[in-house]
Amino acid sequence: MNNDSKISFKLVETFNVIILSVAFIALFVTGFFIQNEDIIMILHYCGWVIWVLACILAFSPNFLFKKHGGVAKGKSYVHTTKLVDKGIYGIIRHPQYGGGLYIALSLILIQQTLVSIILAIVCIITSYLSMVFEDKDLVVKFGEDYEEYMKRVPRVNLLLGFIRKYKRK
């Protein structure tokens, strides 16, 4: 990849993150201002259960990277020097993005509005693109080890991840 291609790729990646961030913020904020009086309560409650599980999923890397990722003392968890495939990373490759996807789904169920559906779809698409970009970056950072990891562990499919983990044991 030449320098112009690298710059273009980074611009697309940055633009995607901006859209993702704006859509997520809008999804949260609209829940305060746009109300649906005819919500289906069972879906609403399921949304809250998914929300709690998604938050656990989304924040787990903060601890796992610090513990297993070779992060220097005082540095942020994003400064990993080792490939982590323990804990949730043995089940899915992108738990933070997965958590974001499940949060978007939960907000559809909690809010039950057309606006939340549209914004959640934008969040899901841009999250998926971010995972693709991240995989490319991590192949550059960790090389063949990450390519093998990609073959073993699905991007964000929890069910498939549990099945593959069970089969590996």
Brief summary:
The chain has 169 residues and is mostly helical. The protein is built from 6 helices and no strands. Helix 1 (3-33) packs antiparallel against helix 4, helix 2 runs antiparallel to helix 3 and helix 3 runs antiparallel to helix 4.
Structural commentary:
The mean pLDDT is 92. The chain has 169 residues and is mostly helical. Helix 1 runs antiparallel to helix 4 and helix 3 packs antiparallel against helix 4. The chain is globular and about 50 Å long. The N and C termini lie far apart (39 Å). It has a single domain (3-168), classed as Four Helix Bundle (Hemerythrin (Met), subunit A). The protein is built from six helices and no strands. 74% of the residues lie in helices and 0% in strands.
Please tag this protein with its features.
Four Helix Bundle (Hemerythrin (Met), subunit A), 6 helices, 169 residues, mainly alpha, globular, single chain
**SSE succession:** HHHHHH
Overall SS class = mainly alpha
Largest sheet: none
What portion of residues is helical? Answer: over 70%
* Proportion of residues in extended strands: under 5%
Question: How large, in whole angstroms, is the Cα Rg?
Answer: 18 Å
Distance between the termini: 39 Å
CATH topology: Four Helix Bundle (Hemerythrin (Met), subunit A)
The number of strands is 0
List segments where confidence is low: pLDDT < 50 over at least 5 consecutive residues: none
Tell me, briefly, the overall form.
globular
What count of helical segments does DSSP give?
6
Quick one: CATH class? Answer: Mainly Alpha
Q: What's the structural domain tally?
A: 1
Mean pLDDT: 92
What's the CATH architecture? Up-down Bundle
